Amino acid sequence: MSITRLTTLPNGLRVVTEAMPGLKSASAGLWVLAGGRHERAEQNGIAHFLEHMAFKGTARRSALQIAEEIEDVGGFINAYTSREATAYYARVLEADVAMALDVIGDIVLNPAFHDADIETERHVILQEIGQALDTPDDIIFDWLQEVSYPDQPFGRTILGPEERVSSFGRADFQDFVAEHYRPSQMILAAAGAVDHDAIVAQARAMFGAITAQANSSFAPARFLGAERREVKDLEQVHFAMAFEAPAYRDPDVFVAQVYATAMGGGMSSRLFQKIREERGLCYSIFAQAGAYEDTGQITLYAGTSAEEIGDLVRLTAAELKRAAEDMTEAEVARARAQIKAGMLMGLESPSSRAERIARLLAIHGRVPTVEEVVARIDAVSTADVRRYAEALTGAPAALALYGPVAAAPGLEEIRAELAR
């Protein structure tokens, strides 16, 4: 049986661990509650750039030494930036947890920010931006985010625009760290073969001297919705649509997840069956739900030919509308089972466990038990899902289209279909 423990240091940094008996490895990392939405317009892309710079060297280690120290013991180290957090984490064997945490603490607290390294990594990120622009089913989600939350930090791309990335320097990174990398916005999480008391002692040594500060603020997200069409000579039209969904702590957050899963979460889902299996209008179609601090999104995606985009969009609207009338008990039960299975299967990995406890602690200030989460999923009824589907048909929406889009219905036409 796993055991979760939480300790908060005097300066506000939280240390949360989940011991998993029988494992010989562990995942440990630092989750900093500062991401894309914490950037000002002139900083767009700096949180992600900063994540890259952490691996370029410190006062104690070169970039090669950072990689070698982890990989010499067979482990791996990585990081990611999201809209609300930046995570630095490693997976190692039990005997190497202290070393991994020392490396992570070093790269977060003591990045060198050498000018030559900044220029090298700038070029890498510009290549990453270029790759995203060349990947239609990737870049369309950035555009969908922009038209869902126009002219807001929450709507901006994580990578940032080329002109911003091209201008960041050492002082910009130092300013962002000083503003947002505060102890109360940091969660050190570890799962697997871990010793909570030893990790707390190491956290005190590494982070305890940092002065406590109030959390930095960010602008609230306001889902407004608009449309963006990008014409390009591609083989397919890429279609993405979004509706606002519940935030993390909204009572309907699991209703939205069950709804999205029933609509487009797998091969048995409504959209897959109706649009791909019955009509053959696409290869890929799905729906998913995401939740954040003060907002959320139901996202739909499909790719199809220029000649068939009209049929695909109209059928999608019809299925969204029909769900409010005849969503079945069997569909809801299947969606609940998919969500629970995905969560429970993920818990077999210490990396997933560490991320889970960090994320839930950030959301709730505590770590709900697995049984508590399962109970909330099981509590979602067919009536709840139908009610949610009904509300969605009249809700604001956003639309992004990319490719040969001339024949694609617009946002107002789609909303009119939903409102009939």
Description:
The chain is an alpha+beta fold and 420 residues long. It has 16 helices and 11 strands. Strands 1-2-6-3-5-4 form a 6-stranded mixed beta sheet, with helices on both faces. β9 (285-291) and β10 form a beta hairpin. α9 (253-264) crosses α12 (329-346) and α11 (309-326) crosses α15 (382-392). The longest helix has 19 residues, at 115-133. It is globular. The N and C termini lie far apart (52 Å). The relative contact order is 0.16. The mean pLDDT is 96.
Task: Provide a quick synopsis of the model.
By secondary structure, the chain is α+β, with helices and mostly antiparallel strands. The chain has 16 helices and 11 strands.
Record the SSE blueprint.
Elements: E1 3-8, E2 14-19, E3 25-32, H1 46-53, H2 63-71, E4 76-81, E5 86-93, H3 97-109, H4 115-133, H5 136-148, H6 162-165, H7 170-180, E6 186-192, H8 196-207, E7 227-231, E8 237-244, H9 253-264, H10 270-278, E9 285-291, E10 296-304, H11 309-326, H12 329-346, H13 350-364, H14 370-378, H15 382-392, E11 397-403, H16 411-419
Parallel strand pairs: 2-6, 7-11
Antiparallel strand pairs: 1-2, 3-5, 3-6, 4-5, 8-10, 8-11, 9-10
